[in-house]
Amino acid sequence: MSASHEVIVVGAGAAGLAAGTQLRRAGIDVLVVEAASRTGGRAWTDTATFGVAWDRGCHWLHSASVNPLRAAADELGLSYLSRGSRQARATHLGDRWADEDERKAAWQAIDAAYAAIHHAGEEGRDIAASEVLDKGSPWIRLARHWLTLMSAAEPERLSTLDYAAYTDTGENYPVEKGYGALVQAVAAHAAPDLPVVTGCPVSLVDWSGSGVALQTPRGTLKARLVIIAVPTTVIARGGLAFAPLLPPDLAEAFEALPLGAAEKVAFLFDRDVFGVAPTTYVDTIDLRNPDRRPVNFTLNPFGANMAIGQLGGDNAARLVKAGPDAMRDFGLAALKDAFGADIEKHVAGFATTGWVADPLIGGAYSCALPGFAHVRARLGRPLGDRILFAGEAVSAHAYSTAHGAHLTGLAAADAALAQLTGRAA
What positions does the domain Amine oxidase occupy (predicted)? Predict the structure, then answer.
């Protein structure tokens, strides 16, 4: 591995891979380094655990009609389910299934919560989302649950102005063989010879000279330009140090755009225990117990005998800290309430995520703290004309998404190429 390159990309998630492939295709001497033993970051399709594909991280092609990764899936022949709504087909209330009027009322409350937050943001109010929620709604716990899935943060720590900046066409398509697998396939197709070195964490970014020097276990790597594509939390916690230190306004931006918690607990069954159509969405909320958090599931995803539960916010973080067994028990209890205790006999395996506990990730995706929506724009500015940033947190309107990360990687690559050669990719 050469110690000197035109561009080094730090991080091989969706953004880093997009940046690397764009530069490689343009003939730039580029190297991608990744601290983990695998590439993809939060775009990770797991096929080893159950023998079938399931996404530990991102799994919906959001805004599918304008999502470049959806177009790439078409080009590569990777199928997805063209179903726009994530709305549950059924809602379990702890001891019974909701009737259709109740199910619709629950989702009207969820949509009303989204609308209230958007309205506040569109008025220019940068306040906590919790301030505009209807706390008297009987479905407030379910509305809060879905807000934490969309933002990874509790409404008290979610900026209305930042939330309103996110744009979504409402088309959310799950990918059959996995969104993580799609991200990998796109990179492999675009630049099969892209040099990527895994297991190579960068401890220090020295931008004191004319170029940039990176301290790694493999020695010092040097480049004219560096693209940093790592999660905000990694930088905010000091996992990636800078010399000189980041300017105060940029350091503040990383602190004010933390990654929240969005986790999953997945179950494999030895048979179809649900008797529902493939890829059925179900919500659960126990109206009998106000202290019990809701959880929603994808049942029989693409026909697999599985249930994948989604956990968000403080509840997700608490369960990760408690351990895999606690996550299993929490998810299985809701499934048993809805489908009967006998389903436990048919559990053939389970798996859990732990993004908040991963020192190389530190959470799910970024959300601006109340009062700090304006700092997101700072991440899009170059640092010392030698360092560019990419990743979902850099995206003004598609943050928290894989395609947002992908697009920022392409934009960083274009900016680097223009600086190096005076031309765009």
Answer: 15-416
